[in-house]
Amino acid sequence: MENGNSLTNGHSNTNQLSELADKSLFISDSFVDGAWISTERQFDVFNPATDEKISSVASLDRDDFIKAIKSAHVAQKKYYKSTTAPARGALLRRWYELIMENKRDLATILCLENGKTFAEAEGEVVYAASFISWFADESARSYGDTIPSSSPNTFIYTVRQPVGVCGIITPWNFPAAMITRKVAPALAAGCSVVIKPPSETPHSCLAFVKLAVQAGIPANCIQVCTTKDREAATELATNPLISKISFTGSTNVGKMLAKLATGTLKKVSLELGGNAPFIVFDDANLDIAVEAAMICKFRCTGQTCVTANRLLVQKTILPKFTAALVAKVNALTVGSGFDTTVTQGPLVNKSAVAKIHEHVTDAIARGATLETGGKPLDRPGCFFAPTVLSGVTTSMLVASEETFGPLAPIFAFETEEEAVQLANDTEFGLAGYLFSRDASRVYRVAERLECGMIGVNTGKISASETPFGGVKQSGYGREGSMYGLEEYQVLKAVTVGGLDR
Length: 501
Ligand SMILES: NC(=O)c1ccc[n+]([C@@H]2O[C@H](COP(=O)([O-])OP(=O)(O)OC[C@H]3O[C@@H](n4cnc5c(N)ncnc54)[C@H](O)[C@@H]3O)[C@@H](O)[C@H]2O)c1
Ligand SMILES: O=CCCC(=O)O
Description:
With about 500 residues, the chain is an alpha/beta fold.
Protein backbone atom coordinates (compact mmCIF):
# COMPACT_ATOMS: atom_id res chain seq x y z
CA MET A 1 0.00 0.00 0.00
CA GLU A 2 1.13 3.55 -0.71
CA ASN A 3 -0.83 6.74 0.02
CA GLY A 4 -3.92 4.66 0.69
CA ASN A 5 -3.97 3.33 -2.89
CA SER A 6 -2.95 -0.30 -3.19
CA LEU A 7 -0.33 -1.28 -5.77
CA THR A 8 0.10 -4.32 -7.95
CA ASN A 9 2.95 -5.52 -10.13
CA GLY A 10 3.38 -5.00 -13.88
CA HIS A 11 2.62 -7.60 -16.56
CA SER A 12 5.09 -8.24 -19.38
CA ASN A 13 4.34 -7.57 -23.06
CA THR A 14 5.49 -10.94 -24.28
CA ASN A 15 2.98 -12.77 -22.09
CA GLN A 16 0.10 -10.63 -23.28
CA LEU A 17 0.98 -10.80 -26.97
CA SER A 18 1.42 -14.57 -26.88
CA GLU A 19 -2.13 -14.85 -25.56
CA LEU A 20 -3.72 -13.18 -28.60
CA ALA A 21 -6.12 -15.62 -30.28
CA ASP A 22 -5.34 -13.99 -33.65
CA LYS A 23 -1.69 -12.90 -33.55
CA SER A 24 -1.99 -11.33 -37.00
CA LEU A 25 -3.94 -8.47 -35.39
CA PHE A 26 -0.75 -7.12 -33.83
CA ILE A 27 0.70 -5.08 -36.70
CA SER A 28 3.67 -2.70 -36.89
CA ASP A 29 3.36 -1.71 -40.59
CA SER A 30 1.46 1.13 -42.21
CA PHE A 31 -1.35 0.44 -44.68
CA VAL A 32 -0.86 2.46 -47.86
CA ASP A 33 -2.33 1.97 -51.33
CA GLY A 34 -3.87 -1.35 -50.28
CA ALA A 35 -0.60 -2.85 -48.95
CA TRP A 36 1.06 -3.25 -45.56
CA ILE A 37 4.38 -1.40 -45.77
CA SER A 38 7.37 -1.05 -43.50
CA THR A 39 10.14 1.54 -43.52
CA GLU A 40 13.76 1.68 -42.51
CA ARG A 41 12.97 4.56 -40.19
CA GLN A 42 10.90 3.35 -37.25
CA PHE A 43 9.65 4.61 -33.90
CA ASP A 44 9.29 2.67 -30.67
CA VAL A 45 6.09 2.05 -28.74
CA PHE A 46 6.22 1.44 -24.97
CA ASN A 47 4.03 -0.25 -22.38
CA PRO A 48 3.30 2.61 -19.92
CA ALA A 49 2.73 0.11 -17.08
CA THR A 50 6.24 -1.35 -17.29
CA ASP A 51 8.34 1.03 -19.46
CA GLU A 52 9.13 -2.01 -21.66
CA LYS A 53 9.38 -1.52 -25.41
CA ILE A 54 6.44 -3.19 -27.17
CA SER A 55 7.43 -2.73 -30.82
CA SER A 56 9.09 -0.67 -33.55
CA VAL A 57 6.61 0.78 -36.01
CA ALA A 58 7.00 2.16 -39.54
CA SER A 59 7.62 5.92 -39.54
CA LEU A 60 6.38 7.30 -42.85
CA ASP A 61 7.66 10.44 -44.54
CA ARG A 62 5.85 13.13 -46.53
CA ASP A 63 6.16 11.20 -49.83
CA ASP A 64 4.40 8.23 -48.26
CA PHE A 65 1.56 10.51 -47.12
CA ILE A 66 1.28 11.94 -50.64
CA LYS A 67 1.11 8.42 -52.09
CA ALA A 68 -1.62 7.41 -49.63
CA ILE A 69 -3.64 10.56 -50.35
CA LYS A 70 -3.43 10.10 -54.14
CA SER A 71 -4.49 6.48 -53.87
CA ALA A 72 -7.37 7.35 -51.50
CA HIS A 73 -8.49 10.04 -53.95
CA VAL A 74 -8.82 7.59 -56.85
CA ALA A 75 -10.45 4.99 -54.60
CA GLN A 76 -13.06 7.39 -53.20
CA LYS A 77 -14.55 8.16 -56.60
CA LYS A 78 -14.92 4.45 -57.42
CA TYR A 79 -16.28 3.59 -53.95
CA TYR A 80 -19.00 6.24 -54.03
CA LYS A 81 -20.01 5.44 -57.60
CA SER A 82 -20.20 1.69 -57.06
CA THR A 83 -22.05 1.55 -53.71
CA THR A 84 -25.50 2.48 -52.53
CA ALA A 85 -25.90 3.97 -49.06
CA PRO A 86 -27.39 0.71 -47.65
CA ALA A 87 -24.51 -1.25 -49.22
CA ARG A 88 -22.02 0.98 -47.41
CA GLY A 89 -24.05 0.41 -44.25
CA ALA A 90 -23.77 -3.36 -44.76
CA LEU A 91 -19.97 -3.13 -45.03
CA LEU A 92 -19.88 -1.19 -41.77
CA ARG A 93 -22.19 -3.75 -40.12
CA ARG A 94 -19.78 -6.56 -41.08
CA TRP A 95 -16.84 -4.52 -39.71
CA TYR A 96 -18.77 -4.05 -36.45
CA GLU A 97 -19.39 -7.82 -36.20
CA LEU A 98 -15.69 -8.64 -36.75
CA ILE A 99 -14.68 -6.18 -34.03
CA MET A 100 -17.11 -7.76 -31.58
CA GLU A 101 -15.85 -11.25 -32.49
CA ASN A 102 -12.26 -10.11 -31.81
CA LYS A 103 -13.09 -8.02 -28.75
CA ARG A 104 -10.64 -9.73 -26.38
CA ASP A 105 -7.64 -9.46 -28.71
CA LEU A 106 -8.42 -5.83 -29.50
CA ALA A 107 -8.75 -5.04 -25.79
CA THR A 108 -5.43 -6.78 -25.10
CA ILE A 109 -3.63 -4.66 -27.70
CA LEU A 110 -5.31 -1.50 -26.41
CA CYS A 111 -4.52 -2.26 -22.76
CA LEU A 112 -0.90 -3.00 -23.63
CA GLU A 113 -0.17 0.23 -25.50
CA ASN A 114 -2.43 2.66 -23.61
CA GLY A 115 -2.34 1.21 -20.10
CA LYS A 116 -6.05 1.56 -19.21
CA THR A 117 -7.48 -1.39 -17.29
CA PHE A 118 -8.49 -4.42 -19.31
CA ALA A 119 -12.14 -3.86 -18.35
CA GLU A 120 -11.93 -0.27 -19.61
CA ALA A 121 -10.11 -1.43 -22.74
CA GLU A 122 -12.90 -3.92 -23.48
CA GLY A 123 -15.38 -1.13 -22.77
CA GLU A 124 -13.58 1.10 -25.27
CA VAL A 125 -13.63 -1.61 -27.96
CA VAL A 126 -17.40 -1.91 -27.54
CA TYR A 127 -17.76 1.90 -27.45
CA ALA A 128 -15.62 2.17 -30.62
CA ALA A 129 -17.73 -0.50 -32.31
CA SER A 130 -20.94 1.32 -31.31
CA PHE A 131 -20.04 4.20 -33.67
CA ILE A 132 -19.65 1.75 -36.54
CA SER A 133 -23.02 0.17 -35.73
CA TRP A 134 -24.63 3.61 -35.41
CA PHE A 135 -23.34 4.85 -38.78
CA ALA A 136 -24.11 1.49 -40.43
CA ASP A 137 -27.74 2.47 -39.78
CA GLU A 138 -27.33 6.21 -40.40
CA SER A 139 -25.78 5.55 -43.81
CA ALA A 140 -29.21 5.07 -45.36
CA ARG A 141 -30.80 8.00 -43.51
CA SER A 142 -29.17 10.78 -45.45
CA TYR A 143 -31.96 12.89 -46.86
CA GLY A 144 -32.11 15.91 -49.17
CA ASP A 145 -34.98 18.39 -49.62
CA THR A 146 -37.34 19.53 -52.32
CA ILE A 147 -37.72 23.31 -52.41
CA PRO A 148 -40.62 25.35 -53.87
CA SER A 149 -39.09 27.53 -56.56
CA SER A 150 -39.78 31.25 -57.09
CA SER A 151 -39.30 30.75 -60.87
CA PRO A 152 -41.98 29.17 -63.10
CA ASN A 153 -41.50 25.66 -64.48
CA THR A 154 -38.55 25.09 -62.14
CA PHE A 155 -37.90 22.42 -59.57
CA ILE A 156 -35.21 22.57 -56.85
CA TYR A 157 -33.84 19.70 -54.80
CA THR A 158 -30.79 19.08 -52.64
CA VAL A 159 -28.58 16.02 -52.30
CA ARG A 160 -25.94 15.19 -49.72
CA GLN A 161 -22.71 14.01 -51.29
CA PRO A 162 -19.45 12.78 -49.74
CA VAL A 163 -16.95 15.57 -49.14
CA GLY A 164 -14.10 13.45 -50.62
CA VAL A 165 -10.84 12.28 -49.05
CA CYS A 166 -10.67 12.89 -45.30
CA GLY A 167 -7.51 13.28 -43.22
CA ILE A 168 -8.02 11.83 -39.76
CA ILE A 169 -5.65 12.64 -36.86
CA THR A 170 -6.34 11.21 -33.40
CA PRO A 171 -4.89 11.06 -29.85
CA TRP A 172 -3.67 8.18 -27.68
CA ASN A 173 -6.21 8.33 -24.85
CA PHE A 174 -8.91 6.51 -26.84
CA PRO A 175 -6.81 4.68 -29.45
CA ALA A 176 -9.85 2.94 -30.99
CA ALA A 177 -12.95 5.06 -30.34
CA MET A 178 -11.50 8.35 -31.57
CA ILE A 179 -10.78 6.63 -34.89
CA THR A 180 -14.12 4.88 -35.40
CA ARG A 181 -16.08 8.01 -34.39
CA LYS A 182 -14.56 9.68 -37.50
CA VAL A 183 -13.95 6.81 -39.92
CA ALA A 184 -17.42 5.22 -39.63
CA PRO A 185 -19.37 8.35 -40.68
CA ALA A 186 -16.79 9.11 -43.38
CA LEU A 187 -17.16 5.65 -44.96
CA ALA A 188 -20.95 5.74 -44.48
CA ALA A 189 -21.08 9.03 -46.41
CA GLY A 190 -18.97 7.57 -49.26
CA CYS A 191 -15.66 9.24 -48.38
CA SER A 192 -12.24 7.61 -48.20
CA VAL A 193 -9.86 8.24 -45.29
CA VAL A 194 -6.15 8.58 -44.59
CA ILE A 195 -5.57 8.05 -40.87
CA LYS A 196 -2.57 9.29 -38.84
CA PRO A 197 -2.88 7.44 -35.53
CA PRO A 198 -0.98 8.62 -32.43
CA SER A 199 2.60 7.36 -32.22
CA GLU A 200 2.04 6.31 -28.57
CA THR A 201 -0.78 3.88 -29.52
CA PRO A 202 -0.73 2.93 -33.23
CA HIS A 203 -1.48 -0.78 -32.84
CA SER A 204 -5.19 -0.51 -32.00
CA CYS A 205 -5.79 1.52 -35.15
CA LEU A 206 -3.87 -0.96 -37.29
CA ALA A 207 -5.83 -3.93 -35.90
CA PHE A 208 -9.17 -2.16 -36.45
CA VAL A 209 -8.20 -1.31 -40.03
CA LYS A 210 -7.17 -4.90 -40.75
CA LEU A 211 -10.67 -5.98 -39.71
CA ALA A 212 -12.22 -3.25 -41.87
CA VAL A 213 -10.47 -4.64 -44.93
CA GLN A 214 -11.48 -8.16 -43.91
CA ALA A 215 -15.07 -6.88 -43.75
CA GLY A 216 -14.86 -5.87 -47.40
CA ILE A 217 -14.24 -2.14 -47.12
CA PRO A 218 -12.19 -1.33 -50.25
CA ALA A 219 -8.54 -1.37 -49.19
CA ASN A 220 -7.61 1.97 -50.76
CA CYS A 221 -10.52 3.69 -49.04
CA ILE A 222 -8.95 3.23 -45.60
CA GLN A 223 -5.23 4.02 -45.40
CA VAL A 224 -3.08 4.31 -42.29
CA CYS A 225 0.11 6.36 -42.16
CA THR A 226 1.96 5.72 -38.91
CA THR A 227 4.74 8.18 -38.21
CA LYS A 228 6.74 9.99 -35.60
CA ASP A 229 7.38 12.75 -38.15
CA ARG A 230 4.80 15.43 -37.28
CA GLU A 231 5.94 17.61 -40.19
CA ALA A 232 5.08 14.80 -42.61
CA ALA A 233 1.65 14.44 -41.03
CA THR A 234 0.82 18.08 -41.79
CA GLU A 235 0.48 16.94 -45.42
CA LEU A 236 -3.05 15.92 -44.38
CA ALA A 237 -3.82 19.58 -43.67
CA THR A 238 -2.21 21.04 -46.81
CA ASN A 239 -2.62 18.54 -49.66
CA PRO A 240 -5.23 19.83 -52.14
CA LEU A 241 -6.64 16.32 -52.67
CA ILE A 242 -7.81 16.25 -49.05
CA SER A 243 -11.23 17.89 -48.68
CA LYS A 244 -11.78 17.51 -44.97
CA ILE A 245 -9.60 17.23 -41.91
CA SER A 246 -10.97 15.83 -38.67
CA PHE A 247 -8.71 16.23 -35.66
CA THR A 248 -8.98 15.19 -32.05
CA GLY A 249 -6.21 16.28 -29.73
CA SER A 250 -4.74 19.30 -28.03
CA THR A 251 -5.97 22.83 -28.69
CA ASN A 252 -2.57 24.11 -29.87
CA VAL A 253 -2.08 21.40 -32.48
CA GLY A 254 -5.73 21.73 -33.57
CA LYS A 255 -5.35 25.46 -34.13
CA MET A 256 -2.13 24.95 -36.08
CA LEU A 257 -3.76 22.34 -38.36
CA ALA A 258 -6.84 24.51 -38.87
CA LYS A 259 -4.60 27.40 -39.98
CA LEU A 260 -2.79 25.14 -42.46
CA ALA A 261 -6.12 23.81 -43.76
CA THR A 262 -7.36 27.31 -44.65
CA GLY A 263 -4.74 27.33 -47.44
CA THR A 264 -6.99 25.01 -49.47
CA LEU A 265 -10.25 25.86 -47.61
CA LYS A 266 -10.82 22.37 -46.30
CA LYS A 267 -13.81 21.49 -44.20
CA VAL A 268 -12.48 21.13 -40.62
CA SER A 269 -13.73 19.45 -37.42
CA LEU A 270 -11.80 19.99 -34.19
CA GLU A 271 -12.37 18.06 -30.96
CA LEU A 272 -9.92 19.71 -28.58
CA GLY A 273 -9.00 20.05 -24.94
CA GLY A 274 -11.42 20.68 -22.09
CA ASN A 275 -11.49 22.06 -18.54
CA ALA A 276 -14.79 20.60 -17.39
CA PRO A 277 -16.48 22.03 -14.29
CA PHE A 278 -18.26 19.48 -12.08
CA ILE A 279 -20.70 21.45 -9.90
CA VAL A 280 -22.25 19.88 -6.80
CA PHE A 281 -25.05 21.93 -5.18
CA ASP A 282 -26.09 21.29 -1.58
CA ASP A 283 -29.47 19.89 -2.68
CA ALA A 284 -27.80 17.12 -4.73
CA ASN A 285 -27.93 13.41 -3.92
CA LEU A 286 -24.37 13.15 -2.56
CA ASP A 287 -23.99 9.42 -3.21
CA ILE A 288 -24.83 9.95 -6.87
CA ALA A 289 -22.51 12.97 -7.11
CA VAL A 290 -19.54 11.16 -5.53
CA GLU A 291 -20.06 8.07 -7.67
CA ALA A 292 -20.26 10.25 -10.80
CA ALA A 293 -17.10 12.13 -9.77
CA MET A 294 -15.24 8.83 -9.51
CA ILE A 295 -16.35 7.70 -12.97
CA CYS A 296 -15.90 11.04 -14.60
CA LYS A 297 -12.59 11.96 -12.95
CA PHE A 298 -10.78 8.62 -12.79
CA ARG A 299 -11.93 6.91 -16.03
CA CYS A 300 -8.80 6.24 -18.13
CA THR A 301 -6.74 7.50 -15.15
CA GLY A 302 -8.14 11.01 -15.64
CA GLN A 303 -6.99 11.15 -19.26
CA THR A 304 -10.27 11.94 -20.99
CA CYS A 305 -11.15 15.23 -22.62
CA VAL A 306 -14.50 15.24 -20.79
CA THR A 307 -12.96 14.47 -17.39
CA ALA A 308 -13.99 16.64 -14.41
CA ASN A 309 -11.02 19.01 -14.27
CA ARG A 310 -12.51 21.24 -11.54
CA LEU A 311 -14.83 19.99 -8.80
CA LEU A 312 -16.91 22.96 -7.61
CA VAL A 313 -18.67 22.08 -4.37
CA GLN A 314 -21.11 24.21 -2.35
CA LYS A 315 -19.54 25.23 1.00
CA THR A 316 -22.30 23.73 3.16
CA ILE A 317 -21.56 20.17 1.94
CA LEU A 318 -17.81 20.52 1.45
CA PRO A 319 -16.61 18.39 4.42
CA LYS A 320 -19.10 15.60 3.67
CA PHE A 321 -18.36 15.51 -0.07
CA THR A 322 -14.58 15.65 0.44
CA ALA A 323 -14.58 12.83 3.01
CA ALA A 324 -16.74 10.60 0.81
CA LEU A 325 -14.57 11.25 -2.26
CA VAL A 326 -11.29 10.66 -0.39
CA ALA A 327 -12.61 7.34 0.97
CA LYS A 328 -13.43 6.17 -2.57
CA VAL A 329 -10.11 7.38 -3.99
CA ASN A 330 -8.21 5.58 -1.23
CA ALA A 331 -9.95 2.37 -2.27
CA LEU A 332 -8.55 2.56 -5.83
CA THR A 333 -5.95 -0.04 -6.79
CA VAL A 334 -3.14 1.18 -9.02
CA GLY A 335 -1.12 -1.04 -11.35
CA SER A 336 -1.00 -2.88 -14.65
CA GLY A 337 -4.31 -2.84 -16.49
CA PHE A 338 -3.99 -6.59 -17.03
CA ASP A 339 -4.30 -7.27 -13.30
CA THR A 340 -8.01 -7.84 -12.68
CA THR A 341 -7.80 -6.30 -9.19
CA VAL A 342 -6.52 -3.01 -10.62
CA THR A 343 -8.89 -0.04 -11.04
CA GLN A 344 -6.33 2.61 -12.12
CA GLY A 345 -3.77 2.06 -14.86
CA PRO A 346 -0.68 4.17 -15.56
CA LEU A 347 -0.52 7.55 -17.27
CA VAL A 348 0.55 7.49 -20.90
CA ASN A 349 4.15 8.62 -20.42
CA LYS A 350 6.62 10.37 -18.10
CA SER A 351 5.69 13.86 -19.26
CA ALA A 352 2.07 13.21 -18.28
CA VAL A 353 3.35 12.24 -14.80
CA ALA A 354 5.45 15.42 -14.68
CA LYS A 355 2.43 17.57 -15.63
CA ILE A 356 0.16 16.30 -12.86
CA HIS A 357 3.03 16.60 -10.39
CA GLU A 358 3.52 20.23 -11.44
CA HIS A 359 -0.20 20.94 -10.91
CA VAL A 360 -0.18 19.36 -7.46
CA THR A 361 3.03 21.11 -6.36
CA ASP A 362 1.81 24.47 -7.64
CA ALA A 363 -1.56 24.12 -5.89
CA ILE A 364 0.02 23.14 -2.55
CA ALA A 365 2.53 26.01 -2.79
CA ARG A 366 -0.40 28.39 -3.27
CA GLY A 367 -2.31 27.10 -0.26
CA ALA A 368 -4.30 23.99 -1.30
CA THR A 369 -4.58 21.06 1.14
CA LEU A 370 -3.44 17.60 0.08
CA GLU A 371 -6.20 15.18 1.11
CA THR A 372 -4.61 12.05 -0.40
CA GLY A 373 -2.03 10.99 -3.01
CA GLY A 374 0.10 13.79 -4.38
CA LYS A 375 3.20 12.09 -5.79
CA PRO A 376 4.57 9.85 -8.53
CA LEU A 377 4.87 6.20 -7.52
CA ASP A 378 8.41 4.87 -7.12
CA ARG A 379 8.20 1.89 -9.46
CA PRO A 380 8.66 1.15 -13.18
CA GLY A 381 5.96 2.60 -15.39
CA CYS A 382 4.20 5.96 -15.46
CA PHE A 383 2.23 6.00 -12.23
CA PHE A 384 0.94 8.84 -10.10
CA ALA A 385 -1.04 8.29 -6.91
CA PRO A 386 -4.75 9.17 -7.34
CA THR A 387 -4.97 12.55 -5.66
CA VAL A 388 -7.53 14.82 -4.01
CA LEU A 389 -6.78 18.46 -3.20
CA SER A 390 -9.13 20.76 -1.28
CA GLY A 391 -9.00 24.54 -0.85
CA VAL A 392 -8.17 24.99 -4.53
CA THR A 393 -8.53 28.51 -5.93
CA THR A 394 -8.46 30.23 -9.31
CA SER A 395 -4.87 31.40 -8.79
CA MET A 396 -3.63 27.81 -9.21
CA LEU A 397 -2.52 26.22 -12.51
CA VAL A 398 -5.16 23.53 -12.31
CA ALA A 399 -7.89 26.18 -12.57
CA SER A 400 -6.89 27.15 -16.09
CA GLU A 401 -5.01 24.12 -17.50
CA GLU A 402 -6.25 20.66 -18.32
CA THR A 403 -4.39 18.29 -15.92
CA PHE A 404 -5.20 15.09 -17.87
CA GLY A 405 -4.43 12.87 -14.90
CA PRO A 406 -5.84 11.40 -11.66
CA LEU A 407 -6.13 14.69 -9.75
CA ALA A 408 -9.46 15.81 -8.25
CA PRO A 409 -9.10 19.47 -7.20
CA ILE A 410 -11.97 20.75 -5.03
CA PHE A 411 -12.99 24.42 -5.23
CA ALA A 412 -15.59 25.86 -2.85
CA PHE A 413 -18.49 28.15 -3.82
CA GLU A 414 -21.36 29.77 -1.92
CA THR A 415 -24.03 30.77 -4.44
CA GLU A 416 -25.38 29.50 -7.75
CA GLU A 417 -24.23 32.71 -9.42
CA GLU A 418 -20.68 32.18 -8.16
CA ALA A 419 -20.70 28.53 -9.33
CA VAL A 420 -21.73 29.49 -12.87
CA GLN A 421 -19.20 32.31 -12.99
CA LEU A 422 -16.39 29.96 -11.82
CA ALA A 423 -17.49 27.22 -14.22
CA ASN A 424 -17.43 29.54 -17.23
CA ASP A 425 -14.14 31.17 -16.24
CA THR A 426 -12.13 29.19 -18.80
CA GLU A 427 -11.24 29.44 -22.46
CA PHE A 428 -12.49 25.85 -22.92
CA GLY A 429 -16.08 24.64 -23.36
CA LEU A 430 -16.25 20.90 -23.96
CA ALA A 431 -18.16 19.19 -21.10
CA GLY A 432 -19.75 20.37 -17.86
CA TYR A 433 -21.58 18.55 -15.07
CA LEU A 434 -24.08 19.65 -12.44
CA PHE A 435 -25.70 17.89 -9.53
CA SER A 436 -28.94 19.16 -8.03
CA ARG A 437 -32.48 17.92 -7.29
CA ASP A 438 -34.05 21.30 -8.06
CA ALA A 439 -35.54 21.08 -11.57
CA SER A 440 -35.57 24.84 -12.11
CA ARG A 441 -31.95 25.14 -11.07
CA VAL A 442 -30.99 22.25 -13.38
CA TYR A 443 -32.64 24.02 -16.31
CA ARG A 444 -31.16 27.43 -15.41
CA VAL A 445 -27.60 26.25 -14.89
CA ALA A 446 -27.57 23.90 -17.91
CA GLU A 447 -28.74 26.86 -20.00
CA ARG A 448 -25.95 29.13 -18.71
CA LEU A 449 -22.96 26.75 -18.79
CA GLU A 450 -20.74 27.49 -21.79
CA CYS A 451 -20.15 23.86 -22.85
CA GLY A 452 -21.02 21.64 -25.80
CA MET A 453 -22.15 18.79 -23.53
CA ILE A 454 -23.74 18.79 -20.07
CA GLY A 455 -24.23 15.89 -17.65
CA VAL A 456 -27.01 16.45 -15.12
CA ASN A 457 -26.81 14.10 -12.11
CA THR A 458 -24.58 11.80 -14.15
CA GLY A 459 -20.91 11.55 -15.07
CA LYS A 460 -21.61 9.49 -18.19
CA ILE A 461 -22.32 11.63 -21.24
CA SER A 462 -20.62 9.77 -24.09
CA ALA A 463 -22.65 7.54 -26.39
CA SER A 464 -22.90 6.98 -30.14
CA GLU A 465 -26.36 8.61 -30.22
CA THR A 466 -25.27 11.81 -28.39
CA PRO A 467 -23.72 14.72 -30.31
CA PHE A 468 -20.12 15.01 -29.08
CA GLY A 469 -18.23 18.29 -29.37
CA GLY A 470 -17.38 21.60 -27.80
CA VAL A 471 -17.67 25.36 -27.95
CA LYS A 472 -15.10 28.13 -27.31
CA GLN A 473 -11.53 26.83 -27.65
CA SER A 474 -12.64 23.20 -27.31
CA GLY A 475 -13.31 23.22 -31.04
CA TYR A 476 -16.17 22.86 -33.48
CA GLY A 477 -18.07 20.13 -35.29
CA ARG A 478 -20.11 17.30 -33.79
CA GLU A 479 -19.31 13.59 -33.79
CA GLY A 480 -21.64 10.61 -33.40
CA SER A 481 -25.42 11.14 -33.35
CA MET A 482 -27.73 12.20 -36.18
CA TYR A 483 -25.39 15.15 -36.83
CA GLY A 484 -22.16 13.17 -37.29
CA LEU A 485 -22.75 12.12 -40.90
CA GLU A 486 -23.16 15.64 -42.28
CA GLU A 487 -19.63 16.51 -41.10
CA TYR A 488 -18.45 14.28 -43.99
CA GLN A 489 -20.93 15.54 -46.57
CA VAL A 490 -21.52 18.58 -48.74
CA LEU A 491 -24.97 19.82 -49.63
CA LYS A 492 -25.60 20.25 -53.35
CA ALA A 493 -28.59 22.25 -54.65
CA VAL A 494 -29.94 21.26 -58.07
CA THR A 495 -32.22 23.71 -59.90
CA VAL A 496 -34.01 22.13 -62.84
CA GLY A 497 -35.53 24.75 -65.17
CA GLY A 498 -37.57 24.68 -68.39
CA LEU A 499 -39.96 22.02 -67.18
CA ASP A 500 -43.17 21.54 -69.11
CA ARG A 501 -46.02 21.65 -66.55
N1 LIG B 1 -12.41 16.86 -27.59
C1 LIG B 1 -12.17 15.58 -27.76
O1 LIG B 1 -13.00 14.84 -28.29
C2 LIG B 1 -10.87 14.99 -27.32
C3 LIG B 1 -10.74 13.60 -27.22
C4 LIG B 1 -9.53 13.06 -26.80
C5 LIG B 1 -8.46 13.90 -26.49
N2 LIG B 1 -8.62 15.23 -26.60
C6 LIG B 1 -7.51 16.13 -26.26
O2 LIG B 1 -6.29 15.62 -26.76
C7 LIG B 1 -5.21 16.01 -25.93
C8 LIG B 1 -4.34 14.84 -25.57
O3 LIG B 1 -3.97 14.15 -26.70
P1 LIG B 1 -2.51 14.32 -27.36
O4 LIG B 1 -1.51 14.64 -26.33
O5 LIG B 1 -2.30 13.10 -28.19
O6 LIG B 1 -2.73 15.59 -28.29
P2 LIG B 1 -1.80 16.12 -29.45
O7 LIG B 1 -2.50 17.29 -30.01
O8 LIG B 1 -0.40 16.26 -29.05
O9 LIG B 1 -1.82 14.93 -30.53
C9 LIG B 1 -2.99 14.50 -31.17
C10 LIG B 1 -2.61 13.90 -32.51
O10 LIG B 1 -2.03 14.90 -33.32
C11 LIG B 1 -0.75 14.48 -33.77
N3 LIG B 1 0.10 15.65 -33.89
C12 LIG B 1 0.73 16.32 -32.90
N4 LIG B 1 1.41 17.37 -33.41
C13 LIG B 1 1.18 17.35 -34.75
C14 LIG B 1 1.62 18.15 -35.84
N5 LIG B 1 2.44 19.19 -35.63
N6 LIG B 1 1.18 17.86 -37.08
C15 LIG B 1 0.35 16.82 -37.29
N7 LIG B 1 -0.08 15.99 -36.31
C16 LIG B 1 0.33 16.26 -35.07
C17 LIG B 1 -0.28 13.50 -32.70
O11 LIG B 1 0.73 12.67 -33.18
C18 LIG B 1 -1.57 12.78 -32.41
O12 LIG B 1 -1.83 11.82 -33.42
C19 LIG B 1 -5.88 16.63 -24.71
O13 LIG B 1 -5.83 18.03 -24.80
C20 LIG B 1 -7.32 16.17 -24.80
O14 LIG B 1 -8.25 16.96 -24.17
C21 LIG B 1 -9.78 15.80 -27.01
O1 LIG C 1 -11.26 11.81 -24.44
C1 LIG C 1 -12.20 12.08 -25.13
C2 LIG C 1 -13.20 11.14 -25.65
C3 LIG C 1 -13.82 10.38 -24.56
C4 LIG C 1 -15.25 10.07 -24.84
O2 LIG C 1 -15.64 9.85 -25.99
O3 LIG C 1 -15.98 10.02 -23.86
